[in-house]
Amino acid sequence: MKIKQLLTPTCLSALVYLSGCAGIQVGGDVQAGRNALQTGRPNDAVGYLTRAADVDPTYKTPYRVPVGVLAYLGRAYYETGRDGEARNALEKAVSLNKDDSLAHLYLGLTLLRTGDRDRGRKEIENGLKGIHETLEYIASDNIYGFNWDPARTIRSDIEKTLATKLDDSPLVVAAVRIGSEFDEEIDKVRRQGAGRRRGGGG
Q1: Most confident of 10-14, 23-27, 172-176
Q2: What is the spatial distance between Cα 107 and Cα 105, in angstroms, rounded to a whole number?
Q3: In this predicted model, what pLDDT tens digit does every residue of 151-189 receive, in sequence order?
Q4: Are 54 and 30 spatial neighbours (Cβ–Cβ below 8 Å)?
């Protein structure tokens, strides 16, 4: 039987449905992995994010700031001390999306911890600058930007960190804090938007 004969409207509908289900599952696993990271459970995050990345390693969060599943998986590996796996995931994340600031940040942290100091510091700096530029760009939007880092807390922290030329240990502490705050800011803004919609506001 020819392939064209197999692809009946019913078969095509089933394929579209299954593809949609897979996408929903990946999205759910990524969100569960992010929640686990945000609540200090990186080992749980590895499980969710590995499953998501196995299905679709190119998946990016469908939010105002899209972040790749491999960036989150790399962060989870980093936080569990699995530096080799973290580096592999983060190198892939950066190669898939050179604008993924969280991937650059956690790649830098991983490289620094494994002894590649010069490149590690450079990647951390790239990640911090990317986060700053992203927040500046979004905040400049007069319609949607007012909720993003409204007190400039994250951006000020980045500016201070970059200007101070910190030694490695305090740089790591600052970078981890900023990375976490930026990721949590994405969800904070999403929750505020959902609250406005439920309340009937704009």
Answers
A1: 172-176
A2: 5
A3: 999 999 999 999 998 999 999 999 999 999 999 999 899
A4: no
Question: Helix (H, G, I), strand (E, B), or coil: what is residue 70?
Answer: helix
Nearest-angstrom CA–CA distance, 81 and 54? 21
The span from the CA of 52 to the CA of 88, in Å, is 16
Rounded distance, CA 195 to CA 47, Å? Answer: 30
Model confidence, pTM: 0.83
Please report, as a single letter, which amino acid is at residue 198: R
pLDDT tens-place string over residues 94-112:
999 999 999 999 999 999 9
What's CA 193's distance to the chain center, in Å? Answer: 19
Cα 18 from Cα 131, distance rounded (Å): 35
Domain 14-199 superfamily per CATH: Tetratricopeptide repeat domain (1.25.40.10)
**CB–CB of 130/136 below 8 Å?**
no
Encoded tokens for 62: 């469908």
Of 77, 86, 92, which Cα lies nearest the Cα of 45? 77
**Which amino acid, residue 177?**
R
Identify whether the C-beta of residue 133 lies closer than 8 Å to the C-beta of residue 148: no
For 60, the 3-state DSSP assignment is: strand
